[in-house]
C-alpha cells in the first residue's frame, strides 16, 4: 500500500508563493500611488500656472491703504512689468472709440471730480484709464462705490500711488496716452494740522513724480491738465479773483502746496517742454461729492438733529464761497483737455523743439453765496431746521470769501457755468437720500418735491 503524499511541503510552498504575490502587489500599489501623487502634483502646478497666465492677480489688495503710509503700489509685490493680460486691459480701456478721440490717464479717478470727468470722457468716446490709491482721508467705501460705477462703464482703475515712479514708467510704456488729467491730491485746509506731511507727499512729491515720468518715460509726451486750487489766492482782497492776481500770500499749507505745484509746472514746461494747464477750482459740489465738504456734512448733521458750526468773520460778516456745480467743472476740464496743445519735448527728457503751452484758468461759478444761504437752502430741501452754532472763523487757513473771474476760460474754451446753488443742491440731496437710503419727512412741501426729483 502506497504511503500518503506529504502535503506539508506543498502547503508551505503555496503559502510562500502567496506571500510573494502579496508583496509584489503591495510594491506595485506603492509605486502606483507615488506615480499618481506625482502626476496629480504636476497637474495642479500646471493648472495654477495656467490660471495665473489667463487671470492675473489684481494690482493690489483691495483693502483701504493706511493714510500714513501712502507709498503702497503693485510694484512692491509684483514683478517690474505689467502682465500681458493687464497690458491688454489697459489698452482696451485707454483706446478711444471715436475718431480723433483722446486717450486720457486720469489720476484720482475714484475721487469726486475724477469720477465725473472719467464718465464724461468715456461717454463721448474717449479712452480712459484711472489711477487711485484709495487712501482713508475720508470713508473709502464711497470711493469704492465710484470705482464700481466706473467699472460698469468699462473704465479700468489701477490701485497704486503716484509716488511709485517705476509704476508710472511702466504705465506710460504700456500705452501712449495723449493726455493726463491729474486730479489726485490731498485736499482740505484743516486736515493739515493733523497730517501736514500728506500734503507734501500728495501735492508736491507726487506731482514731481508724474511730471518726471511724463517728460522722460512717455513716448510721445502727453499734454497734462492738472488741479490747482482757488486757495492759491490766499489773503488776496481783490474781487473777483483773476489769474493775473498775485498769489504770494497763501493762508494754508494746502494752498502753499498748490502754489508750489504751479511753480513746479513752470519749471517742467520750461526745461522739458511739457504742455501744462493748471485749473483753479472754486468750491466744487454735487452728487457723489466729498464728505469733508461743508454742504455734505451739514446735510448729514441736519438730518441727524446735530448742531452745525457756521463761521463768521471777525467783523461779523458772513463767510461766502463761489460754489461751483460739478457738471460745470467737468465741462471746464474737458474744454481744457480739448484745447491743450502737444508737448514739445523729446522722449527721455531730451531737448524740446520749441516753447510749450503753459496755462492757468479759474473754474468757478462767478456768484459768491453766503454759507448761511447754503444752510437755508438745505433746510428747505430736507424739511428740517438746522441747529446752528455761529462762531468766529479761526485763523487756521480759511479765507472769508472766494469769487472767480472766469473770462479767460470763457474766451479760450467756452467755459460758462449755468447751475445756481439751489438747483445744484437739489440734485445733491436727491443723490444723498438715495445713496444712504434716507426717507425725508413729508412735513415740508419742498422736502417732498426734493424726493420726487
| CATH-level-4 superfamily name of one domain | NAD(P)-binding Rossmann-like Domain
Percentage of residues in strands:
5-15%
**Oligomeric state of the chains in view:** single chain
CATH class (first level) name of one domain:
Alpha Beta
Which percent bin holds the helix content? Answer: 40-55%
Structural class determined from secondary elements: alpha/beta
Distance separating the two termini? 121 Å
- Order of adjacent strands in the largest pleated sheet: 3-2-1-4-5-6-11
Rounded average pLDDT: 86
What is the string of helix and strand elements? Answer: HHEHEHEHEHEHEEHEEEHEEHEHHH
Q: What is the CA-based Rg, rounded?
A: 31 Å
CATH topology of one domain: Rossmann fold
Low-confidence stretches: 51-80, 444-453
Total helical elements: 13
DSSP strand count: 13
Q: What general outline do the C-alpha atoms trace?
A: globular
Amino acid at each position: 500500500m502506497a504511503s500518503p503524499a506529504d502535503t506539508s511541503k506543498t502547503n508551505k510552498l503555496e503559502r510562500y508563493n502567496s506571500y510573494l504575490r502579496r508583496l509584489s502587489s503591495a510594491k506595485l500599489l506603492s509605486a502606483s500611488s507615488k506615480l499618481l501623487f506625482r502626476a496629480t502634483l504636476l497637474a495642479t502646478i500646471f493648472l495654477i500656472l495656467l490660471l495665473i497666465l489667463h487671470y492675473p492677480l489684481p494690482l493690489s489688495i483691495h483693502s483701504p491703504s493706511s493714510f500714513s503710509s501712502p507709498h503702497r503700489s503693485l510694484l512692491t509685490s509684483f514683478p517690474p512689468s505689467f502682465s500681458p493680460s493687464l497690458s491688454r486691459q489697459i489698452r482696451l480701456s485707454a483706446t478711444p472709440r471715436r475718431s480723433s478721440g483722446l486717450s486720457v490717464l486720469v489720476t484720482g479717478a475714484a475721487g469726486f471730480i475724477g469720477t465725473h470727468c472719467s464718465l464724461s470722457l468715456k461717454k463721448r468716446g474717449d479712452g480712459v484709464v484711472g489711477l487711485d490709491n484709495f487712501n482713508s482721508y475720508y470713508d473709502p467705501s464711497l470711493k469704492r462705490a465710484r470705482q464700481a460705477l466706473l467699472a460698469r462703464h468699462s473704465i479700468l482703475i489701477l490701485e497704486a500711488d503716484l509716488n511709485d515712479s517705476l509704476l508710472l514708467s511702466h504705465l506710460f510704456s504700456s500705452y501712449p496716452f495723449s493726455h493726463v488729467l491729474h486730479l489726485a491730491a490731498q485736499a482740505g485746509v484743516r486736515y493739515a494740522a493733523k497730517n501736514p506731511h500728506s500734503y507734501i507727499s500728495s501735492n508736491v512729491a507726487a506731482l514731481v513724480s508724474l511730471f518726471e515720468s511724463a517728460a522722460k518715460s512717455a513716448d510721445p509726451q502727453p499734454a497734462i491738465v492738472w488741479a490747482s486750487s482757488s486757495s492759491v489766492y490766499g489773503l488776496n482782497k481783490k474781487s473777483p479773483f483773476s489769474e493775473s492776481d498775485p498769489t504770494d500770500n497763501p493762508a494754508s499749507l494746502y494752498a502753499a502746496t498748490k502754489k508750489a505745484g504751479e511753480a513746479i509746472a513752470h519749471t517742467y514746461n520750461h526745461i522739458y517742454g511739457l504742455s501744462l494747464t493748471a485749473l483753479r477750482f472754486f468750491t466744487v459740489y454735487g452728487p457723489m461729492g466729498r464728505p469733508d465738504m461743508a454742504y455734505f456734512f451739514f446735510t448729514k448733521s441736519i438730518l441727524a438733529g446735530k448742531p452745525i458750526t457756521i463761521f463768521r468773520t471777525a467783523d461779523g460778516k458772513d463767510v461766502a464761497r463761489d460754489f461751483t456745480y460739478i457738471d460745470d467743472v467737468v465741462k471746464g476740464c474737458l474744454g481744457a483737455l480739448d484745447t491743450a496743445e502737444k508737448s514739445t519735448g523729446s522722449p527721455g527728457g531730451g531737448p524740446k523743439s520749441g516753447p510749450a503751452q503753459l496755462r492757468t484758468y479759474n473754474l468757478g461759478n462767478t456768484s459768491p453765496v453766503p454759507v448761511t444761504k447754503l444752510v437755508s437752502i438745505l433746510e428747505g430741501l430736507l424739511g428740517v431746521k438746522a441747529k446752528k452754532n455761529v462762531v468766529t472763523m479761526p485763523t487756521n487757513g480759511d479765507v472769508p470769501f472766494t469769487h472767480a473771474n472766469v473770462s479767460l476760460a470763457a474766451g479760450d474754451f467756452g467755459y460758462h457755468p449755468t447751475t445756481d446753488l439751489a438747483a445744484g443742491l437739489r440734485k445733491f440731496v436727491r443723490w444723498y437720500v438715495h445713496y444712504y437710503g434716507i426717507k425725508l419727512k413729508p412735513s415740508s412741501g419742498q422736502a417732498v418735491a426734493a424726493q420726487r426729483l
